[in-house]
Amino acid sequence: MGLEEEFLEYAEKAKTLPETTTDQSKLILYGLYKQATVGPVNTSRPGIFNLRDRAKWDAWKAVEGKSKEEAMTDYITKVKQLLEEAAASA
Q1: Fewer CB atoms inside 10 Å of the end CB: C or N, the chain?
Q2: Which of 46, 39, 33, 45 lies closest to 65, judged by CA?
Q3: Which portions of the chain are predicted below pLDDT 50?
Q4: What is residue 90's predicted lDDT score, i.e. its pLDDT?
Q5: Whole-number average pLDDT of the chain
Q6: Residues in Cβ contact with 48 at an 8 Å cutoff, skipping those fewer than 6 apart
Q7: Alpha carbon separation from 44 to 13, 24, 36, 40 (Å, rounded)
């Protein structure tokens, strides 16, 4: 299985993460996903009153230097970690 296929598989698995997954973990996944699928941030930072979108933008900006492959690999690793934590606490 190639990296892209594995990435897509784990993107689907990420949708099954429990409600208890922290917002911080979700933001990390969001940033890595956007970096892997879109590339570097291509929008301006949302305004100060738009906290949700601003946090998502910041998470994406934080991983801006990663290559597409690095972002995919880190995303897969993070989803695996979160799934293992969820299974351990179940």
Answers
A1: C
A2: 39
A3: none
A4: 75
A5: 96
A6: 54
A7: 30, 21, 19, 12
- At 12 the three-state DSSP class reads helix
Neighbours of 10 (CB within 10 A): 19
Q: Return the exposure string of 70-81: e unless at least 16 CB atoms fall within 10 Å of the residue's CB, then b.
A: ebbbbbbebbee
Give the span between the Cα atoms of 43 and 78, in whole angstroms. Answer: 25
Contact 81, 17 (CB under 8 A): no
* pLDDT for residue 1: 78
CATH class assigned to 3-12+21-89:
mainly alpha
For residue 29, give the nearest of 14, 40, 39, 45 by alpha carbon.
14
The secondary structure of 17-76 as a DSSP string is: --TTS-HHHHHHHHHHHHHHHT-S--SPPPPTT-HHHHHHHHHHHHTTTS-HHHHHHHHH
pLDDT at 76: 98
